[in-house]
Design goal:
This protein is an alpha+beta fold and 441 residues long. The chain folds into three domains: 2-97, no CATH class; 108-154 and 393-440, Alpha-D-phosphohexomutase, C-terminal domain (TATA-Binding Protein, 2-Layer Sandwich), CATH 3.30.310; 185-295 and 350-369, Sandwich (Tick-borne Encephalitis virus Glycoprotein, domain 1). 32% of the residues lie in helices and 34% in strands. The chain has nine helices and 22 strands. The strands form four sheets. Strands 4, 6, 10, 11, 12, 18 and 19 form a seven-stranded antiparallel β-sheet that branches. Strand 10 (260-262) and strand 11 form a beta hairpin. Helix 7 runs antiparallel to helix 8 (373-390). The chain is elongated and about 120 Å long.
Length: 441
């Protein structure tokens, strides 16, 4: 029992809680600064071994410490658990006993007891009845026993810290639950095709139940709205959630900051690309060629493909484009510019008629599931309520009638100046033969 008591005393220490909170904040910031959930090549390129960032942070150090997925590492979750344990111990060791003490009342039966109060006064005359009426007007709850009186208000201020602690525990529990059961995925899907969530980047050890198996998503259409200057105004994806039997369960058009949500899974519109081009040579059947994003040093993105102009693939042209607006550039095998082309307008290259029928865009989706989010939101709501409640002052006033002397005094846990003014108003309101003298001890 002695060891357990010592453990509770250490874990409930306010200094330890502050250190843990600062540590969690620092690592949370690192998870915001360092890109999370990227591939190995990304970290090797951005965090090289020479020169190392800050002289020590290389991609190897980053991966060993788990800084590429901070919020799901064992040490980060352990910090949350220890901090939650500290909050729980503090709540039961300090806050709840403080609330119980504030909820109980006791009467002062001796004048010397008033000398221990922060504010006290001794009057020539006065009565508990007149004092009780004045205090009730100011919102105090009155308790009387014979010639003794006790009044209090603002007990909600003692409940506030407990609500704050409970809210923080709910937030921590939601964060841990989300890290264990949530997942994060990315998909690049051409317009008109469907997909299942398979490209999972991060997943908690208990997340398998969250990855949908009984439905998939169809990209009905992807398109981009351009401004008058030719820049992208917004890009959209018309998505349908389909059951395994092919029944449409939900349909919604998503765009940036307007995701689709279904059964706890959220699909965000994040990026776009060009997946393929439909081509016809002379009177040939329509065939679809894939397009790939090409590396470049200039601004913007470029996609390209190679179009064969002979059946034996011995000759062909390169087709390049920057967007889905329709203008494409054709280069010959020597890299010379041949012509510009738009969909539906044939041009002659290498002695044949080349007709680009359609550019097929692809939507980039970010897919998340975090079952802990409802708990986190609930916790933040309670946290705001608890903080507001904590601002209420818990004020207490005692009074005692002894012979021709009337003793009164009080204390509060905050807003001392306001309480002093309130007590002076109460004293002024009492019908006394002498002007009461307020003694500050």
């Amino acid at each position: 029992m002695n060891l357990f008591s010592r453990f509770l005393k250490i874990i409930a220490d306010l200094r330890l809680a502050i250190i843990l909170l600062l540590t969690i904040a620092i690592f949370s910031i690192s998870g915001t600064v360092i890109e999370q959930g990227q591939g190995l090549s990304f970290y090797q390129e951005n965090y090289p071994e020479s020169p190392a960032l800050f002289g020590f942070l290389t991609w190897k150090v980053l991966l060993i410490l788990g800084l590429n997925h901070v919020y799901t590492t064992w040490w980060y979750l352990s910090l949350l658990i220890v901090f939650g344990t500290s909050l729980t111990a503090c709540t039961f060791n300090r806050q709840i006993p403080a609330l119980k003490a504030a909820n109980n009342w006791k009467f002062y039966q001796q004048p010397r007891q008033f000398e221990k109060l922060a504010l006290s006064a001794e009057l020539d005359t006065g009565s508990s009845l007149s004092l009780a009426n004045l205090l009730q007007q100011k919102g105090y709850k009155i308790f009387q026993e014979g010639d003794a009186l006790y009044a209090r208000k603002g007990i909600i201020g003692r409940v506030g810290p407990i609500i704050v602690h409970a809210a923080m525990l709910i937030i921590l529990a939601g964060s841990i639950w989300g890290a264990l059961t949530g997942f994060f995925a990315q998909e690049i899907v051409p317009s008109g095709e469907d997909f299942r969530i398979t490209n999972v980047i991060e997943a908690g050890p208990l997340s398998q139940a969250q990855i949908p198996q009984d439905w998939y998503v169809k990209v009905n259409r992807f398109w981009i709205d351009y401004s008058e200057k030719g820049t992208i105004d917004q890009f959209y994806s018309d998505l349908s959630v389909m059951s395994n039997e092919g029944k449409e369960l939900k349909r919604e058009t998503i765009f940036v900051n307007h995701p689709l949500r279904y059964q706890g899974v959220t699909l965000y519109q994040t990026t776009w690309g060009i997946s393929a081009v439909k081509v016809r040579l002379n009177n040939s059947p329509i065939f679809k060629l894939p397009m790939a994003e090409l590396p470049g040093k200039g601004d913007g993105q470029i996609w390209g493909t190679w179009i064969p102009t002979k059946p034996d693939l011995s000759e062909g042209v390169s087709l390049l484009t920057r967007d889905l607006q329709g203008t494409m550039i054709v280069y010959d095998v020597n890299g010379n510019l041949t012509s510009a082309i738009r969909p539906g307008i044939p041009v002659e290259v290498n002695g044949i008629s080349l007709n680009i029928l359609e550019l097929i865009g692809s939507t980039g989706l970010q897919i998340k599931a975090d079952p802990g989010i409802p708990f986190v939101y609930t916790g933040f709501g309670l946290l705001m309520i608890g903080v507001v409640m904590s601002y209420f002052s818990h004020s207490q006033i005692w009074a005692l009638q002894q012979g021709d002397r009337f003793y009164i005094g009080g204390k509060t846990n905050r807003a001392q100046v306001t309480f002093e003014r309130e007590l002076l108003e109460v004293l002024d309101g009492l019908k006394t033969e002498k002007t009461p003298q307020l003694l500050t001890i």
